[in-house]
Amino acid sequence: MTTMLEGPVALRHGRDLVSPELFEKVPAFCAEEYGHELSTARRIVDQALAFLKVMGDTRAFDMTPSDAVDPGWHSFVLHTQAYAAWCQEQFGFFLGHEPKATVRTRPLIGSVVDRVRAAGFHVDDRLWGAAKEGNPPACCGDGDGC
Fold it and tell me: With left for phi above 0 and alpha for psi between -120 and 50, is residue 82 left, alpha or beta?
């Protein structure tokens, strides 16, 4: 027997994983630090939060964000106390960021997008789409090309 859904299923959003105050604070920092419009920074942080939730919940430490989404993670990590508390609340452990730990490839980013989508999160394809073509790791000032 097949059960049909009666209407569209609401997608989850990363922004709903933090307080409204924190969601305004982190994108504002991202916009200022990375030169994005605030609306773009909000999209970036939303996707970073969804990515982090999936990675932490599944302990899929092989995951990596796209070049466009990575600044959202950086912006959250730099709000160290809030980030540490959130990680503890969500996962029971601190989810560290290892810059350049994984080279972004088309198959890897495609897999990450699939996992985020499978977890029920909205995926902003514009922030992940170019990454599916492969791109270099984001720069954190820790190596060549930064």
Answer: alpha
Instruction: In whole angstroms, give the CA distance from residue 30 to residue 42.
Output: 8
Q: Which helix (H) or strand (E) holds 114?
A: helix 106-118
Do 51 and 112 contact (CB within 8 A), yes or no?
Answer: yes
Dist CA 99 CA 114 (whole Å): 22
Of 5, 14, 7, 9, nearest to 123 by C-alpha is: 14
Is the pLDDT confidence value at 8 over 70? no
- Report the predicted TM-score, pTM, of the whole model to 2 decimal places: 0.81
DSSP 72: H
* C-alpha–C-alpha distance, residues 131 and 110, integer Å: 8
